[in-house]
């Protein structure tokens, strides 16, 4: 049986992470660098409390590492369907299991050393998480899992992780201590991040979809509109935010009523304008490509039935173009979720504010506190768009 060389390298990286990289790092306080602790050392520390189970924790951890290796070896070669299901279950259990192990060790450190000690998740944790994530994705692909099964698997893993966090199991991890220190502003920053995304997508759709329709019907519109949109994509986000600060501040000074609506040189207004400009290209391109791929025969048949231009658009073009249009909107949405973090540099707030506070304070876990919710939000939105795309897909037998 021949495996995939690229995934074999990833499997080797996962095993190497288990053996040589630190699972967690422990620092005496928030200001100093931590010392790495390997998986085996974690096992030695936690062995005493679980000896009553009949198997020492180091042996348990070795069994976990063996299962991980077997899981990776199985998922990256040609295997029967049942083996893919076994790999899926093992990898899905190990993903929250790694977090539980880190939380258990952090609690042990807090009890035996100092309440000021900081236990952070180490490089081995993140490498193993990435490899296991890929293992789950590959197993689902090999099993030809439908959307319902894939959503169930990912939601189950997510709920297990949320339960570990909510139950207090991981409270002594440095990441959760940072959350406790910022709990009063965290929910507000999440809502602010969502506000930036929504306020960006609304004008993007209102402008981008008609422009996509226009350039699909006119080559002249295409020549005039696409080059500027392509150029905007090459401008760094920080530079674009800076370029918009001066004209928006001037507008707010010239017409004070604009300031009452939130228009100013810093804050939400320049962030939304800049992100809207960035989001237009994928939406316009998606609308153009979707409308252009509607078969001419369908349009001719609709005209032959006596349909008006509006009826042809709503009853024939739009339903067939919807999957491609949604793909463009999906790209713009995920892009906006990520770029909205940079908007914190001009006072827009959001999860980027937490992330940059961590960067400026050299607090790695505070950076993660801002980054991880952004990643989670992007994944949830991506899953939601996949559901919409399946719903918008033309029925089998319809012209594509």
* N-C termini distance: 38 Å
| CA gyration radius, whole angstroms | 26 Å
Q: What ranges have pLDDT less than 50 throughout 5 or more consecutive residues?
A: none
Following the backbone from N to C, one meets helices and strands in this order, namely: HEEHHHEHHHHHHHHHHHH
What count of structural domains?
2
State the CATH superfamily name of the largest domain. Answer: MetI-like
Main pleated sheet: 3 strands, antiparallel
Average pLDDT for all residues: 82
Assign the CATH architecture of the largest domain.
Orthogonal Bundle
What is the percent of helical residues? over 70%
Q: What share of residues are in beta strands? A: under 5%
CATH class of the largest domain: Mainly Alpha
Q: Biggest sheet, strands in spatial order?
A: 2-1-3
Map the helices and strands.
Blueprint (H helix, E strand, L loop, with lengths): L4 H16 L3 E4 L7 E3 L1 H8 L10 H19 L5 H32 L5 E4 L1 H20 L4 H20 L7 H8 L1 H35 L1 H16 L2 H18 L1 H5 L7 H25 L3 H9 L4 H31 L11 H10 L3 H29 L8
Please provide a brief summary of the model.
This protein is 75% helix and 3% strand. With 400 residues, it is mainly α.
Could you characterize the architecture of this molecule?
With 400 residues, the chain is an all-alpha fold. The protein has two domains: 5-173, no CATH class; 183-392, MetI-like (MetI-like fold, Orthogonal Bundle), CATH 1.10.3720. 75% of the residues lie in helices and 3% in strands. The protein has a three-stranded antiparallel sheet with strand order 2-1-3. A hairpin with a 7-residue loop joins strand 1 and strand 2.
